[in-house]
Amino acid sequence: MNITDPLEGRSKKEKKWSGYYKIARHYKFALDKVFAHPARYDSVIIMEDDLDVASDIFEFFAQGRELLRADPTLFCVSAWNDNGKSQHVADPHRLYRTDFFPGLGWMILRSLWDDELGPKWTDRYWDDWVRLPEQRNGRACIRPEVSRTRTFGAKGVSKGQFFNKYLKFIKLNEEHVNFLATNVSYLLKHNYDNALTKHVRSLEVTALTALTSLDSKLSSDIEYVIEYSNNGDFKRMAKALGIMSDNKEGIFRTAYLGIVSIVWRRRGHLEDAPIRVHLAPKLPWDGYQPA
């Protein structure tokens, strides 16, 4: 085997982030090997070595694989919720579609690798590359409300980016859910999209301050929607709520059709009754707006 140096001919700036080049090459090598196996596996689960996993993760992926096979508008299943801090989650049974590729414990089918990603795999920053429109092709991923993975990777090629502020607070699921006995057909696009938009647009619109104020009068028996006007507006709201505010190609983490759904409790007040909130773009919505 002829193994070349992935940093050969790279600039000094590129070599500073050499780990990203090495990781991208490792993914390519590993996925090629798995799908070249004589057993002809039709799917693969990719797990980083700095992840803890929940007891029901394989049932989650097994059911997710059936969704991937049934719905061509999906391209991955991820065990991770980018906004899965303890104060922002409540229901271990609840699953969502997302336009944002989450990573951190994910599954794809052979067809995606053989026909699309494998032949043109990137040599760097593989996760951001997967999030590009030409890879996503308008497709979505499945993700849980309560994460089935948790990272303990405080140090790595990203130099601990996001870890101390977000990642170390992600809640790992503790309630075993038998997903194989669960009907998840609501996640198919022809069922999900209309149900989501109809539900969210029927909710009471409230202000961010009405939710975050210390004397908030909002009820945990009611779901609410907070509308944002543009990317900057969303970023301001996300920071106030303590969820991730960055976006890739205009898509915010966990968003689907522009909607980011969370549970709200004040930080340090997990005993508070959770309030379910949806951050949704004001209508009419013209789709995601890359910066």
Order of helices and strands: HHEEHEEEHHHEEHEHEHEEEE
Q: Distance N terminus to C terminus? A: 42 Å
Characterize the largest beta sheet: strand count, sense, and whether it forms a barrel. Answer: 5 strands, mixed
Oligomer: single chain
The beta-strand count equals 13
Radius of gyration: 20 Å
Fraction in helix? 25-40%
Stretches with pLDDT under 50, minimum 5 residues: none
Alpha-beta classification: alpha/beta
Which strands sit side by side, in order, in the main sheet? Answer: 1-5-3-6-4
Count of helical regions: 9
The fraction of residues in strands falls at 15-25%
Global outline:
globular
Mean pLDDT: 92
Describe the structure.
By secondary structure, the protein is an alpha/beta fold. The chain is 29% helix and 18% strand. The chain contains nine helices and 13 strands. It has helices at 12-16, 18-35, 57-70, 110-117, 126-130, 133-136, 189-201, 208-212, 231-241, and strands at residues 43-46, 51-53, 74-78, 95-98, 106-109, 140-144, 149-151, 204-205, 224-228, 247-248, 251-252, 260-264, 275-281. The strands form four sheets. The protein has a five-stranded mixed β-sheet with strand order 1-5-3-6-4, sandwiched between helices. Strand 10 (247-248) and strand 11 (251-252) form a beta hairpin. The longest helix is centred in the N-terminal third of the chain and has 18 residues, at 18-35.
